[in-house]
Amino acid sequence: MHFLPTNLPDAWLIEPEKRADARGFFARSFCTQEFSAHGLETVYPQQNVSQSAQRGTLRGMHFQRAPDAEVKLVRCTRGAIYDVIVDLRPTSPCFMQWQAFELTQDNHTTLYIPKGFAHGFQALTDHVEVFYMVSMPYAPHAEAGVRWNDRALGLSWPLPPSVMSERDQNWPDFTR
Fold first, then answer.
1. Which residue out of 2, 38, 62, 138 is catalytically annotated?
2. What is the pTM of this model?
C-alpha cells in the first residue's frame, strides 16, 4: 500500500499496490502492520455500507463528538464519489480547512479520516456504493454534523444536490 499525505494533518489517501496478471489484480486494502507503522488506527469494530441511487445525492457533513469520536476508512466500491473532509480540531494548524478527493470503483483508493473531522460525500454517478470502517461503534448521543453549505467553511460541490436527507439539510452552521 502507498500512504499519501493530504493537505490536512493526520488524513491520508491510501492507494493499493496492485499485483496484476491475466486474471486481473490482487491488492491489500488494509494491513494492521502497515497502518501501525504509520501511526494510524488499526481497530475497526464496525463496518458500514452506503448506497446512493441517484447522481448528485449528497450525504454529510457528519462526525461523532468525543469521547465517541471516530476514525473512518472510506472507499467507493461502485461508481464514483466526491469525498469531502473538514478539519474541526480547534488546535490544528488547518482548523476549518477542507479538502476533497475523488474516490472511484476504478482507483480503489481509501481515505483515512482522523478523529475530529467532519465527513461527507456526493455521488458523481448513479448507483454508488461506499464501504467504510469506523473505529468506534455508532453512538446516537454523539452524532453531530455541520451544514453542507455553511458559508464559514466554504465547501464547494461539483453538482447541485439532487437528494439529501432532512437531517443533512438542517445541520447547524459550524460554531467554534
1. 62
2. 0.96
